[in-house]
Structures are given as structure tokens and as C-alpha cells.
Amino acid sequence: MLVTGLEILKKARAEGYGVGAFNTNNMEFTQAILEAAEEMKSPVILALSEGAMKYGGRALTRMVVALAQEARVPVAVHLDHGSSYESVLKALREGFTSVMIDKSHEDFETNVRETKRVVEAAHAVGVTVEAELGRLAGIEEHVAVDEKDALLTNPEEARIFMERTGADYLAVAIGTSHGAYKGKGRPFIDHPRLERIAALVPAPLVLHGASAVPQALVERFRAAGGEIGEASGIHPEDIKKAIALGIAKINTDTDLRLAFTALVRETLGKNPKEFDPRKYLGPAREAVKEVVKSRMELFGSVGKA
Ligand SMILES: O=C(COP(=O)(O)O)N(O)CCCOP(=O)(O)O
Ligand SMILES: [Zn+2]
């Protein structure tokens, strides 16, 4: 059934488990995520970025909202990284039940003002809002420690920000970054910082850039002809610890992309005569579904629907 993001996340934070927000750009990802959620009896968030909205248009948004309404588990349809008020309005018009306004690259006062404006519009139509404070972008190794610190979420600022904006959940910058290259060795998550934020912010907290980028998947991608450098993701134990400290929404996109693409390459490589898309998109869909199920087990959302 179609519910708001807050309905899913408030329960998750209160009961100490995480809920996956999985990005979709097409029919196969959407089917894989929803089938996994129903099999695992897990709530789930279907996330569409602005890039997804541009790529799939109304064919994608109509399909996602309609399938979420029919789902046998709670599903929120979420705008990921909305960059403007106008972009959020488009998602509201499409029937989304959760929207992110990401003004984390702006100064604090601009972020507060723009986020507050979105909260007023979204709340007026019963939709809940994710905001972001702190810079998620990959922080290069050469950046000085104090500069890095300035880019991560400041706990006291987070408290004031949430009080002034009325946002429903908060994406925090605690060391993760988008994509397959999250840092050398075991990428860094600042759990002590997260603990301080969670003590001051009772709202559900959100972790972006949370993909695990498992080496087995990286190897399978390479073996199928894919090219990828020294990829690394967030260790499962670090995710579990972050959930125990207050993270309720965990974003996963890269792992799904790697799984899907590895299987497309692998199937086509093994069957050079194949040109029926169902024969190579089907196995890829199954691979995405397995990744989603394993993430739900890690997050603790199995059986929570
Ligand atoms: O946090 C994440 C994904 O994190 P991950 O890369 O660790 O999976 N996201 O918000 C996904 C962002 C996807 O945006 P786009 O469609 O423009 O490429
Ligand atoms: Zn993100």
C-alpha cells in the first residue's frame, strides 16, 4: 500500500531497524524491489532521482505509483535529491509520498529557507520531507582534516535546522559518498558524530552513499567484461552500527546497478546470438531482487511490514 516516508521511517527509528530506499529507473528495477519487499514482508522506499524522472518520465512515475498502491507491503514513493522547489512540485503532482529537497551545498540560511518552503508545500498535501545538512560528496584524501570536519554534519546545527525547517527526516554527512569508490580500504563512517546527532535529532536519520560494493559483485562485473577501478563500499557491520545509532533510511543504488549490469553483460556474453531483451533483462532483474533481499536482511526490516 502507498504510504508516506514518515509512516515507514518513524516506526523504523523507534524500533531500531533500517528501511531500504532503492533507486529505480525502469520497470525491471521496480519489479525486483517490490517483489523482494513482498517476499521479505518488508516496508520499502522506491526512490526516483531527477535523472530517473528525466529518463523514464510519466511512464516511470505512473508505473511506480500504481504498483506501490497495489503492493501488499507499505511502500513510499520518494523523490531522491530534489534540487529545487519546482522539481518537488512535479513529484507531488505525480503522487509521490516522500520528497527530498537537497540544498546541502548552499549556506545554512539558504538551506533552511528553501527546505522550509518545500516542507510547507509538501505537508499541505500530506507528503513528508527529507532534507540534507552537511556535504555528502566524496571528500578527497587531500582535503585537510578540519576542512573535512566542516563538511560533515554538525550535531548542534542539525538540531536547529530540523526545528527551524520542520523537515521529517534528515540526511546526514558522516563520511559516506555516492558511487563505487567510497574510500581506500574500509571507508570511514563517523559513528561518534552520528551518535551526537541522534541524541539531538529525534527524527529518522538517512544515510546516503550506503552501497556495500561487495568484491564478489565487482569481480563478477569484471569477469563479464565490465571495467571498474579499485571499488569499495560501506562494510555491513558499519551499516548495522549506524542503524543502531539512529539511521532509519538507507540509500542503495550502486549495488543494484552493478548487479543488473553484470548479469546483462554475462548473459549476452554467454549467448552472442541472443537479441530478445527479455532473455537478458530477466536474469538481470533477478540479480537486483537478490541484492535487495540481502540488504533488507542486513537492515533488519524483514517481517516489519
Ligand atoms: O545515496 C544514493 C546512492 O548511494 P550509493 O551510490 O552508495 O548506492 N543515492 O541518493 C542515489 C543517487 C542516484 O542519483 P542519480 O540517479 O542521479 O545517479
Ligand atoms: Zn544520495
Largest sheet properties: 8 strands, parallel, barrel
Provide a count of the helices. Answer: 12
Helicity, as a percent range: 40-55%
Which CATH architecture? Alpha-Beta Barrel
CATH C-level name: Alpha Beta
Provide the structure class.
Answer: alpha/beta
Distinct small molecules? ligand PH4, zinc ion
N-to-C CA distance: 10 Å
**Low-pLDDT regions:** none
Radius of gyration: 19 Å
Strand content bin: 5-15%
Q: Report strand order across the widest sheet.
A: 1-2-3-4-5-6-7-8
Please trace the helix and strand order, writing H or E for each element: HEHEHEHEHEHHEHEHHEHH
What's the CATH H-level superfamily name?
A: Aldolase class I
Features of the shown structure:
305 residues; alpha/beta; TIM Barrel; 12 helices; 8 strands; binds the ligand O=C(COP(=O)(O)O)N(O)CCCOP(=O)(O)O; binds zinc ion; EC 4.1.2.13; metal-binding; Class II fructose-1,6-bisphosphate aldolase
Tell me briefly what this model is.
The protein is of the alpha/beta class and 305 residues long. The chain has helices at 5-15, 27-40, 50-70, 85-93, 108-124, 145-151, 155-165, 191-200, 215-223, 236-244, 254-270, 277-299, and strands spanning 19-23, 44-49, 75-82, 98-101, 128-133, 169-172, 205-207, 247-252. The protein has an eight-stranded parallel beta barrel with strand order 1-2-3-4-5-6-7-8, surrounded by nine helices.
Notes on the protein architecture:
The protein has an eight-stranded parallel β-barrel, surrounded by nine helices. Helix 2 (27-40) crosses helix 12, helix 7 (155-165) runs parallel beside helix 8 (191-200) and helix 9 runs parallel beside helix 11. Helices cover 52% and strands 14% of the residues. It has a single domain, classed as Alpha-Beta Barrel (TIM Barrel), CATH 3.20.20.70. Strand 2, helix 3 and strand 3 (75-82) form a beta-alpha-beta unit. With 305 residues, the protein is of the alpha/beta class. The mean pLDDT is 95. It contains twelve helices and eight strands. The longest helix is centred in the C-terminal third of the chain and has 23 residues, at 277-299. Its cofactor is Zn(2+). One of its GO terms (molecular function) is fructose-bisphosphate aldolase activity. Pfam families: F_bP_aldolase. It comes from Thermus composti.
